[in-house]
Amino acid sequence: MASTNGIVVRSARTEERDQILRLSEICFGMRVGPADIEYGPRVFPTERALVAVDGDRIVGHTNDHTMTVTVPGGGTVRACGVTSVVVAPTHRRRGILRALYTEQHRRTEAEGVPLTIFTASEGTIYGRFGYGPTVVEVDFTVRGRAAEFRPSTPDPGGVQVVSLDEAKTVLPEIYDRWRRLVPGAQVRPEARWQQRVFADSIQTEDGAPQFFLTHPDGYAILRRAWSDEGNTATVRELRAVTPEAHIALWRVLLNLDLVKKVVASTSDNDPLPHLVTDPRLVHVTARHDALWARIMDVPAALTARTYQRDLDLVLAVDDPFRDAGGNFALRIRDGLAECEPTDRSPDLELGIDVLSSLYFGAYRARTFAAANRIQAKDTAELRAFDEAFTSDRDAELGWFF
Ligand SMILES: CC(C)(COP(=O)(O)OP(=O)(O)OC[C@H]1O[C@@H](n2cnc3c(N)ncnc32)[C@H](O)[C@@H]1OP(=O)(O)O)[C@@H](O)C(=O)NCCC(=O)NCCS
Q1: Does 96 contact ligand 1 (Cβ within 6 A)?
Q2: Does residue 124 lie within any of the structural domains?
Q3: Does residue 57 sit in the same domain as residue 161?
Q4: Per-residue pLDDT tens for 180-193?
């Protein structure tokens, strides 16, 4: 395929799987467990991967899976979900990642997929390829049984502790209803459920057992681990289709006996702190990006989602990596967008990484303008652009890849 400084970039072969796993282990500094060995190729087939080869050694790797992702308004977009990006420590900073990415993004363009997404290990690498952080995750802890619910907080009930077998029949259907509402959430492959979510209940790497709580419109998956500090309940996943399910599940989780600490992650505007009498008890420990995105086709991506107000603007989008940039006339009426290339002069200039950050509604245009990353002709246009791109539902990552 492509060759740079004697390094050949080509499709991987099935029999190269072991070599790729060994490369991933040294690059990420961890051993790949049996569950991952079984799960990986079922979602990310080895033959789909690209490898960089030096002689007979694999020194670089990337793979992807085309996902269906929800956008603001409840529509979906196809997205190339990139994973396992690694370059051998012996071959770093010689342009191998760039060569792999060039081929991978060429292939994504040829397949007509309008968006690429991934979870980034470092914040400084991917802007140059047109990526921006696009989904925010907030980690928090609550002291066990310390939180009291406000008198105004309903007590909907309806939560049950279910077995692994019951969880297997109930959770995927609830998840699917949830992900249709939530920007950033992806369709979850069957192998992800079986080999990762449910398999973790049988064979836990740290010995912490996994339990399932369900409600007709939600569920929580939690681990309970004992240490010298007592018992910690870690909520691995909580999905609530309705506000009632959210409240009902949290009423159980915050009242678990013997639990010293509940640890969980959520989005920016989770109502939990406002359901309890002391919002400070929901103690935020970290706020970080959970997903990065790069728009590959501006008109296709922008017309897939809906918007919060009418707009008539020409955007100048700069794409330093591919040719997806240019001037685009964006017209929004009643939430729906029309977008096409234009020769008209721009009202607003921004990089494709910034436009990608705004895509799911989690990051605000006004913040990027304050950081000198958006240049607008006037403040009224900037305000309209900022408001239009917000979303009435927080973006969340459906499953990590
Ligand atoms: C991150 C990694 C894939 C980079 O591979 P690489 O082959 O060394 O990268 P390249 O030489 O192609 O660099 C491409 C560009 O990114 C920059 N870059 C690469 N790694 C960087 C880093 N860690 N921090 C800042 N910039 C970085 C390079 O300077 C280069 O810039 P330029 O092309 O604009 O001049 C490799 O270091 C690695 O495997 N790291 C450990 C695993 C990991 O973090 N993978 C990423 C998962 S999302």
Answers
A1: yes
A2: no
A3: no
A4: 999 999 999 999 99
* Domain boundaries, position 89: 2-113
Residue 267 lies in a domain: yes
How far, CA to CA in Å, does 280 sit from each of 103, 122, 164, 234?
48, 30, 34, 19
pTM more than 0.90: yes
**DSSP character at residue 343:** -
Integer Cα distance of 375 and 345 in angstroms: 13
Query: Which one from 39, 118, 126, 385 is the annotated catalytic residue?
Result: 126
Confidence of residue 199 (pLDDT cuts 50, 70, 90): confident
Amino acid occupying residue 354: V
% of the chain with per-residue pLDDT over 90: 93
Could you tell me if 231 and 270 lie in one domain?
A: yes
Residue 298's pLDDT is 98
SS3 of 211-265? EEEEECCEEEEEEEEEECCEEEEEEEEEEECCHHHHHHHHHHHCCCCCEEEEEEE
Q: List, for residues 58-103, the tens digit of each pLDDT value.
A: 999 999 999 999 999 999 999 999 999 999 999 999 999 999 999 9
Q: How far is the CA of 97 from the centre of ligand 1 (A)?
A: 6
Q: Which atom of ligand 1 is nearest to the CA of 88?
A: 39
152 and 71: one domain? no
The verdict on the CB of residue 85 being under 6 Å from ligand 1 is yes
Residue 202, pLDDT > 90, answer no
Ligand 1 midpoint to CA 125 (Å): 6
Ligand 1 centroid–CA 132 distance in Å is 16
What pLDDT score was predicted for residue 208? 85
- C-alpha 181/C-alpha 75 separation (Å) is 9
- Residues 274 and 316 reside in one and the same domain: no
Tell me, yes or no, whether 132 lies in a domain: no
